[in-house]
User: Fold this.
Amino acid sequence: MEKQRGNFGEAAWVRLSNGSKDNSCVPGQTSSYFEHDADIGIIGRGDTLEQAFETAAQAVFGIVTPLDKVQPQTSVKIEFEESDHELALVTWLNLLLGKARELGMVFSCFHVQRRENLWSTEAFGEKWREDLERGVEVKGATLTMLSVKKTGAMWEARCIVDV
Amino acid sequence: MNLERLRQLQPYLWTLPRTPGEERAEVLLYGGAPLLVSMDDKVLEQIANVASLPGLVGAAMTMPDAHWGYGFPIGGVAAFDAEQGGVISAGGVGFDISCGIRCLRSNLDLEDAVEHFPELGNALFRAIPAGVGEEGEIKLNPEQLDQVMHGGAHWAVQQGYGTAADLDYIEEHGRVAGAIPDNVSELAKKRQRGEMGTLGSGNHYLEVQVVDRIFDPAAALAFGLHEGQILVSIHCGSRGLGHQIGTDYLVLLAKAASRLGIHLPDRELACAPVKSPEGQRYIGAMNAAINCALANRQILTHLTRSVFTEIYPQAALETLFDVSHNTCKAETHQIDGESRLLYVHRKGATRAFGPGHPMLPERYRQVGQPVVIGGSMGTGSYILVGASENPAFASSSHGAGRAMSRHQALARWKGRALVDELAQQGILIHTRSMRGVAEEAPGAYKDVDLVAEATEEAGLARRVAFLRPKVCIKG
Assistant:
């Protein structure tokens, strides 16, 4: 069963296509979740593969805290190479989770660009602060129920994340 | 789970018959019919996948608390023989490598302690970093972190966290051999920098409990337990370091399996032969994470003791036992009368050595290993003892096991209301995440009594004591 949006019920942020740093995120509605006994299934959708990755990341960080409360004031760039789209999704989500923990940050807005096998990504967020509501820590993105595919006009990226 | 798909071998043992043409080893499921009926069919699919991996010895098994996981089911046990092409699987260990429970017995009884539970809960909540985004006060440089990965709980004791007496009652005597910090990525090490001595999130907890009922007086005596006694259980793992090692090796081993021609029905089973370079690299990194988890629980033990003596000056907390439930361990088992070295994966399953096992501390050697089945914050937990003729590579259940998804729980319960309801029952919950409390609602878990009973009836471990929660610090 799929749940539209809402681990916390609020809208997350997506980056506007103009790419400007200031005010570059607006509320988005394209991430969602699916059922799993012990953990959580996340889904990202978009008009492009890259947008599906961006909203999948929002689904992941939407488990951690309400994203509309996170100020996208600091950006972190992550690059990696991967030819397999599905492994690229898991690799990227796990790099984001690793960076967030390393830097003590939470991310709310994402930008993905791809040139063949090279993925150039940027995550926007801020350091944890006391008044950010605590959700649940995501330990990692798994290869279970992992799927990246285009259905009709939309791309969809999904997997189970371990919490 | 549709029981018509299974064949019952014994009252608490079932098998999944092979379909025509299906090539896999045997699947065995431990538990009574009510527990198995409540399991998702995905458990069967996942354990059947495990049974298709190379070098499996005997059967792929599920414990009575099994539920749908990723790759392996939670509550999955599988042993592999390296000499027969057996594999090591990152998916068979999980992200939270060496997640486990440290159980402490106190010299306090409920009647001495109950009056100060509110202060105790507040003080523990201040002292124990818990929940997402929380860091500990201990910050390690790379050299110190290498020492943790080699030294485990020994490192922590050397730094003044706890005493040498604790080490006797930790699996592997507090330090597993074969850790190779060089096999651990820089990102994994960076993730751990601020996470030593932290509890984590999700189903992790620190719980003050009272011994409510003794089932086995002789074993209870050996374990130093009596009714009315206060215990503390600490449930957590290897934190960011283990999570990142799991992450790093998942993709690496998935690619290795593909390259080596190992068919993976689910890529999360990511594995490589134990004897392959990739397999050896993972084992070195996994052992480093195990030591990190043992050190982490040792630090949390020290912090807990400090709080207890602040609130109860006469308090003394001794380690009853520390046992992990997300590991792969090289162990010697008797197979058809022959001693064989096996790589036993326990994912959401606890090691449960029976009486006489040489790896047990002298105090427990005659009676068997303490085993903890951690229940929900509203129901209770069990301490059991490893059975003599455990048929599952000396493995047992590790918890109540989830009965519904986190989303279902979120839809059904509100964190604040649950905290208030449990307070009415005399259970004090401290948390930074009301969402986490709702997801971990007692009603979201299986009946822990049924799990413990099935564990005993299946011959995996015997019940010794039932513990009721009194104060809970939720991650």
Observations:
- Chain A has two helices and eleven strands.
